[in-house]
Amino acid sequence: MAAVSYFTVEAELPGGRGRAGIIHTPHGDIRTPAFVAVGTKATVKAVLPETMSGVGAQAILANAYHLYLQPGPDIVAEAGGLGAFMNWPGPTFTDSGGFQIMSLGAGFRKVLMEDPNRNQSDDAVAHGKQKLAHVDDDG
């Protein structure tokens, strides 16, 4: 079983208007408020992983959906997990990729490799499945 993450409050503003603390994780502590670098595809553009701490990053955020599409979960797992794949020993966050699933397709096929001019509006619906959402240019 993985170690438990928890949060401790270090300082509070009166009336609950703000607080600072530490998120304790198995991969290191994150002092809040925190600078969390965005590495959508498990890499922060123009910054080497070895220098992330030097620029003040306490954690790196990656996008689960983009990583699912490329390089894929098997490659990340074979590397030893997300941190090892990124060459980052510190804490990592991932978002669900929910926005990308809805904006790039219905989430049941890899749309990254497809011709964006070929798809029609209803092509993203799985055959035999009910269409649960409609996303157009107006949202």
Largest sheet: 3 strands, antiparallel
Helix content: 10-25%
Give me the count of strands. Answer: 6
| CA distance, first residue to last residue | 41 Å
The rough form would be described as globular
User: β content, as a range?
Assistant: 15-25%
* N-to-C series of helices and strands: EEEEEHHHEH
The side-by-side strand order for the widest beta sheet comes to 1-2-3
Structural notes for this entry:
Helix content is 17%, strand content 22%. With 139 residues, it is an alpha/beta fold. It has a domain of 34 residues. The strands form 2 sheets. It has a 3-stranded antiparallel beta sheet, with no helix packed on it. A 3-stranded parallel beta sheet has the order 4-5-6. The model has no long low-confidence stretch (mean pLDDT 80).
Short characterization:
With 139 residues, the chain is α/β, with parallel strands linked by helices.
Please describe the topology of this protein.
Blueprint: E1 6-12, E2 19-25, E3 28-32, E4 36-38, E5 59-63, H1 64-69, H2 73-78, H3 82-86, E6 92-95, H4 98-104
Defining key terms:
alpha/beta, three-stranded antiparallel β-sheet, three-stranded parallel β-sheet
